[in-house]
């Protein structure tokens, strides 16, 4: 949370990506909607595949962008909502059961069921990032959102838990601390993307959201307005650019331009006759060669296919492909590649659309782009929590620690029931 003179508390979010750092400041208005007050981003070369490779430089960049947006919005930023790279994360689908013998379900039974999961059974190498109760089951009915006051013989709680590498968490926390900031919330990047890009129906019915970033590609699944899965792979748009550099022998800047202006997953017969002048690597733009658009697309398609197949394999790894989700939303800068939505339809056998941030009030249409889905989704996390009616959503990550039976557990859960 940040402070503003003579105004109510507002919020600041920071997205540390593989190609850029973005910061946004927003406030929940009288209609309980997040309203953007300021936004700024700048490129970075100090993050590779979602991981910081130069902590000192990234700290300086964070300080610079925070100072810029502080002056722009007349705010004093102290706490930040920040994204988490989840490439080395693990997903846990937990169940906890309690016998009721026909009793009426109350808070104690729910607490007991949660305590009978392995939610605290985390090795020191990992830290819990998200814990979300997806639903409850009884011997009478399944997928109950709130079982309180029902009668049943048994109660089962189903929790999705996402855990991240603890050293990554400590490194991130240290960078933010050295930037004179505190972490208010740490949110998985694909979760943030889904909050800003999915419609209400998509979040309710079950939708796969794929964020095609520069250094990573991440995926989340939202169903019944809850996060039920998230993961990430270390393949992104930069891989396509590198393939073009190697395949055509052209500088990185030229390869990025070719990908953006002429690249496509599919080729048409006419592409054979569309010639493009390409500078040669090491020639200082003095020497050129001509390629046709079809040659370029032949370099792009294999990497796109690999990326989408790896995401599909992630779903298969957790048996989520059997649920046959029929809706896929693509976002992130890579979603702007021509034809990628059509190719995703083939890979996932689903309806596919490309989305910009749609669930937030953005006055400047120039920043309403897929590559900014994460930063605006981070702010929307606050809006989502303010509207959350599910008393069993486990939100406060700092309170989740490995503890013995019931020790400190009731005081933790009392925050959310």
Give your account of this protein's structure.
With 417 residues, the chain is α+β, with helices and mostly antiparallel strands. It has eleven helices and 20 strands. The chain has helices at 55-73, 107-115, 166-178, 189-197, 200-205, 237-248, 252-262, 293-317, 340-348, 373-387, 409-413; strands spanning 2-4, 11-16, 20-28, 34-43, 47-48, 51-52, 75-77, 79-84, 90-99, 126-138, 154-165, 182-188, 207-212, 217-223, 226-233, 275-279, 288-292, 327-331, 351-354, 393-394. The strands form six sheets. Strands 4-3-2-8-12 form a five-stranded mixed beta sheet, sandwiched between helices. Helix 4 packs across helix 10 (373-387) and helix 8 runs parallel beside helix 9 (340-348). It is globular, with a radius of gyration of 23 Å. The model is unreliable at 1-7 and 389-417 (pLDDT under 50).
Strand content: 25-35%
Helix content: 25-40%
User: How far is the N terminus from the C terminus?
Assistant: 24 Å
What is the average of the pLDDT values? Answer: 90
Please specify the SSE layout and strand pairing.
Layout lengths: L1 E3 L6 E6 L3 E9 L5 E10 L3 E2 L2 E2 L2 H19 L1 E3 L1 E6 L5 E10 L7 H9 L10 E13 L15 E12 H13 L3 E7 H9 L2 H6 L1 E6 L4 E7 L2 E8 L3 H12 L3 H11 L12 E5 L8 E5 H25 L9 E5 L8 H9 L2 E4 L18 H15 L5 E2 L14 H5 L4
Parallel strand pairs: 2-8, 8-12, 13-18, 18-19
Antiparallel strand pairs: 1-7, 2-3, 3-4, 5-6, 9-11, 10-11, 10-20, 13-14, 14-15, 16-17
């Amino acid at each position: 949370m940040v402070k503003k003179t003579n105004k109510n508390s507002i919020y600041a979010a920071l997205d540390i990506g593989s190609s850029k750092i973005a910061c946004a400041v927003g406030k929940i208005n009288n209609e309980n909607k997040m309203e953007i007050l300021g936004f700024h981003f700048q490129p970075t070369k100090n993050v590779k595949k979602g991981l910081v490779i130069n902590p000192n430089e990234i700290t300086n960049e964070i300080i610079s962008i925070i100072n810029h947006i502080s002056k722009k919005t007349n705010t004093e930023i102290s706490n930040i909502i920040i994204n988490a790279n989840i490439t080395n994360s693990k997903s846990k689908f937990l169940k906890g059961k309690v016998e009721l013998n026909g009793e009426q379900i109350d808070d104690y039974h729910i607490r007991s069921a949660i305590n009978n999961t392995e939610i605290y059974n985390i090795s020191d190498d990992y830290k819990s990032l998200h814990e979300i109760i997806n639903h409850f089951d009884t011997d009478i009915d399944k997928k109950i959102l709130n079982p309180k006051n029902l009668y049943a013989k048994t109660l089962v709680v189903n929790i999705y838990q996402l855990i991240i590498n603890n050293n990554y968490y400590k490194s991130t926390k240290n960078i933010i601390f050295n930037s004179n900031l505190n972490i208010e919330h740490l949110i998985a990047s694909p979760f943030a993307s889904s909050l800003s890009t999915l419609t209400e129906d998509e979040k309710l019915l079950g939708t796969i959201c794929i964020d095609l970033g520069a250094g990573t590609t991440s995926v989340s699944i939202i169903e019944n307005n809850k996060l039920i899965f998230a993961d990430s792979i270390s393949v992104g748009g930069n891989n396509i650019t590198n393939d073009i550099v190697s395949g055509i022998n052209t500088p990185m800047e030229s390869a990025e331009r070719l990908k953006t202006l002429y690249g496509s997953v599919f080729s048409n017969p006419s592409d054979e006759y569309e010639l493009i002048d390409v500078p040669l690597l090491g020639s200082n733009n003095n020497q050129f060669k001509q390629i046709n658009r079809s040659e370029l697309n032949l370099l792009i398609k294999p990497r796109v296919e690999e990326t989408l197949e790896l995401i599909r394999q992630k779903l298969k790894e957790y048996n989520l492909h059997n649920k046959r989700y029929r809706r896929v939303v693509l976002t992130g800068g890579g979603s702007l590649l021509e034809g990628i939505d059509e190719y995703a339809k083939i890979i996932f056998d689903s309806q596919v659309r490309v989305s910009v941030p749609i669930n937030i009030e953005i006055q400047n249409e120039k920043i309403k782009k897929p590559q900014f889905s994460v930063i605006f989704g981070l702010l929307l996390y606050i809006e989502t929590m303010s509207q959350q009616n599910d008393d069993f959503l486990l939100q406060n990550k700092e309170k989740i620690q490995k503890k013995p039976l019931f020790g400190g557990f009731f005081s933790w859960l009392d925050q959310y029931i």
